[in-house]
Design goal:
Layout (H helix, E strand, L loop, with lengths): L2 H24 L10 H18 L5 H11 L4 H21 L5 H16 L1
């Protein structure tokens, strides 16, 4: 993954966290239960789409998001859980942990090839 792509993905995820923080600052309750359901669903949908877009297919991030959403609960509960997944993604992207072993090996082999040329 290129650095510019990584920066763009982190920016998308950080904007979702920023919107979550904005909702929380407007709410009188930790679970944002006093805010309109439509606002929660909008951000919930954006968070879910970002997790699916940024994460590798069937990754722990996607599976965790699906597990959170499978619970019978209020949208604020789901949203709070997804924010944990989004924050994990941000941290792991910044640390370079989303690269697969195959990508790392490919990059290393390509670097070795370039050194020999």
């Amino acid at each position: 993954m290129s650095t510019s792509t990584q920066i763009a993905l982190i920016g998308q995820l950080e904007q979702i966290v920023s919107e979550w923080n904005g909702l929380r600052s407007r709410s009188q309750h930790d679970d944002v239960s006093d805010l309109p359901e439509t606002e929660l669903i909008r951000l919930l949908t954006r968070a879910r789409a970002a997790i699916e877009r940024v994460s590798p297919p069937n990754s722990a991030y996607v599976r965790q998001a699906e597990s959170i959403l499978a619970e019978t609960a209020y949208s604020g509960f789901h949203l709070r859980g997804l924010m944990g997944v989004v924050q994990s993604l941000i941290s792991d992207l910044k640390s370079g942990y989303l690269q697969t072993v195959a990508e790392l090996i490919h990059g290393e082999l390509f670097g070795d090839f370039l050194e020999r040329v």
